[in-house]
């Protein structure tokens, strides 16, 4: 057993100083603490599930280059203990001084971009993150880049045009920067040792739960082995909903966000290794640098705050049939590096799932990295996501297709679907109809017909079974039209939502 460490308060930079929090449940969210304890009502609750963006805040984390790395996150699903050692900025921090407005605030006023005003604080924070990032890079965003940055902010008053106008106009005034120097100085004085926090359970005040935050893979492995029933937490983009919507007690928790080794992304020996703790934003950026065709998938995966908080390892381990990472990674022949104590093993991601949200992890085992071979970068790859809206929506069907050809003959094929059934899986019969065949429309049609043998699609609020089967067949046909040897069609001719070069729908 790993000896228990002395518990201490949660410490983070907020409102110009380091604050200490103790006595709050380990599942208390940042939003709850802001509104109920800190009395900062600017940050709003809209959906309590990380979808609407009304609760958007900025979290700053000291970076290796000596700067404070700023990222937007959803306060409604961010657990308070995960702020330890970081800085928290809210809409109240944006105003530079009394009787003045920040360029962002002034632009929103001047363009009449705030109507009911409920969503405005979250929009201000998303624009602030964009503003700071572009000032650092000495660039000015295009209108589409601003739209991408604001993809996680919903406006029920439909004021998107003036909001984008404000995003463009905020760069016209003299720059006003968010002061991060005080945060960096204060955070440098905090302990960098493994962190443990204990508090009464939100579900049962007579029970105590512990939040563990190890800082090395070795410490994580030992802790996970000693506490195999503890809940692993990374971005909590799904677990946060368990807390908010289902009122679930998580018990003891092990937080992965402080393990630097888990956030490494590197290429070695022809393999792209993505640490399980790397954010979705970082992981998709790495994948897209090797497979540029994945850019649309990256931008449509989720909102920026979700991609900043969530991890690819968490998305894969979750095993939801509507998770968008796994189909793509299976199509790319990804392998999972698993660890249990000192022992490591590898398993193909396509063999990892055993049923609905179940997998082959052993007690005390966790995903350490996702390894993606780069040998197939020359293969033909396409990923298609079918949703009811373009931005920040859950897939009704996601198809990830990869074909390798020897001349005009199909030498290898991967057809992977998410959203079709209880598990993400390859379409074995459809693949068999293609493998070894000439790459032709007739072969694609044979594969489309074979899909009925591969899946018994589900019916739910997102789509009927009949729709899912038909759209999966049509995605194969779209794949053929885009990649046929003679006269392939550009993406915008086969999809109303095909992205342009900046990620906007054409």
Report on this model:
The protein is an alpha+beta fold. It has 4 domains: 10-92 and 183-255, Beta-grasp domain (Ubiquitin-like (UB roll), Roll); 95-177, Orthogonal Bundle (DNA polymerase, domain 1), CATH 1.10.150; 263-373, Uridine Diphospho-n-acetylenolpyruvylglucosamine Reductase, domain 3 (2-Layer Sandwich); 380-493, Enolase-like, domain 1, CATH 3.30.390. It is built from 16 helices and 20 strands. The strands form 5 sheets. Strands 2-1-5-3-4 form a 5-stranded mixed beta sheet. A 5-stranded antiparallel beta sheet has the order 10-11-16-12-13. A 4-stranded mixed beta sheet has the order 6-7-9-8, covered by helices on one side. A hairpin with a 6-residue loop joins β19 (409-418) and β20 (425-426). The longest helix has 19 residues, at 465-483.
Query: Which segments are poorly predicted (pLDDT under 50) over 5 or more consecutive residues?
Result: none
Biggest sheet architecture: 5 strands, mixed
**Helix content estimate:** 25-40%
Strand order of the largest sheet: 2-1-5-3-4
Average pLDDT reading: 94
- Please tally the helical runs, counting DSSP H or I stretches of 4 or more residues: 16
Secondary-structure-based class equals: alpha+beta
Q: Quick one: overall form?
A: globular
- The end-to-end span amounts to 57 Å
Strand content: 15-25%
| Total of domains | 4
Can you name the CATH architecture of the largest domain? Roll
By CATH, the topology of the largest domain is Ubiquitin-like (UB roll)
Q: What's the CATH first level of the largest domain?
A: Alpha Beta
Q: Write down how many β-strands occur, each being a DSSP E stretch of 2 or more residues.
A: 20
Gyration radius from CA atoms, angstroms: 23 Å
CATH evolutionary superfamily of the largest domain: Beta-grasp domain
């Amino acid at each position: 057993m790993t000896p228990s460490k002395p518990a201490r308060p949660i410490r983070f930079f907020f409102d110009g100083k380091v604050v200490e929090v103790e006595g709050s449940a380990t599942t208390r969210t940042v939003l709850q603490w802001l509104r109920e304890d800190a009395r900062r009502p600017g940050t709003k609750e809209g959906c309590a599930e990380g979808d609407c963006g009304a609760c958007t805040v900025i979290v700053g984390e000291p970076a290796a280059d000596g700067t404070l790395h700023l990222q937007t996150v959803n306060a409604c699903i961010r657990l308070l203990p995960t702020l330890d050692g970081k800085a928290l900025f809210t809409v109240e921090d944006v105003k530079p001084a009394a009787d003045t407005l920040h360029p962002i605030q002034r632009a929103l006023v001047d363009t009449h971009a705030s109507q009911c005003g409920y969503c405005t604080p979250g929009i201000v924070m998303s624009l602030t993150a964009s503003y700071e990032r572009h000032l650092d890079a000495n660039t000015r965003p295009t209108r589409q880049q601003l739209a991408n940055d604001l993809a996680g902010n919903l406006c029920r008053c439909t004021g998107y045009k003036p909001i984008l106008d404000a995003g463009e106009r905020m760069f016209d005034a003299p720059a006003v920067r968010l002061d991060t120097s005080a945060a960096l100085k204060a955070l440098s004085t905090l302990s960098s040792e493994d962190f443990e926090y204990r508090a009464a359970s939100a579900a049962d005040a007579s029970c105590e739960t512990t939040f563990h935050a190890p800082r090395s893979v070795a410490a994580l492995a030992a802790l996970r082995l000693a506490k195999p029933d503890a809940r692993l937490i990374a971005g909590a983009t799904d677990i946060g909903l368990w807390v908010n919507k289902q009122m679930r007690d998580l018990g003891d928790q092990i937080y992965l966000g402080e393990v630097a080794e888990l956030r490494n992304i590197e290429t070695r020996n022809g393999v792209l290794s993505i640490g399980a703790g790397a954010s979705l934003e970082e992981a998709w950026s790495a994948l897209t640098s090797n497979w540029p065709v994945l850019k649309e998938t990256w931008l449509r995966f989720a909102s920026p705050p979700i991609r900043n908080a969530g991890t690819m390892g968490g998305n894969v381990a979750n095993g939801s049939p509507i998770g968008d990472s796994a189909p793509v990674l299976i199509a790319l022949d990804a392998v999972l590096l698993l660890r249990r104590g000192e022992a490591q093993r590898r398993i193909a991601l396509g063999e990892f799932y055993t049923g609905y949200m179940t997998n082959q992890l052993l007690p005390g085992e966790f995903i350490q990295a996702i390894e993606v071979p780069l040998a197939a970068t020359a293969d033909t790859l396409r990923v298609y996501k079918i949703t009811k809206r373009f931005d920040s929506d859950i897939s009704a069907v996601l198809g990830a297709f990869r074909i390798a050809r020897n001349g005009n003959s199909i030498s290898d094929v991967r057809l992977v679907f998410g959203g079709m059934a209880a598990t993400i899986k390859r379409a074995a019969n459809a693949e068999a109809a293609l493998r070894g065949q000439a790459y032709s429309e007739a072969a694609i049609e044979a594969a489309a017909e074979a899909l009925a043998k591969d899946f018994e699609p589900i019916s739910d609020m997102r789509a009927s079974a009949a729709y899912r089967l038909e759209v999966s067949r049509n995605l194969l046909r779209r794949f053929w039209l885009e990649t046929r040897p003679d006269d392939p069609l550009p993406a915008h001719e086969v999809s109303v939502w095909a992205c342009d070069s900046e990620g906007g729908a054409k």
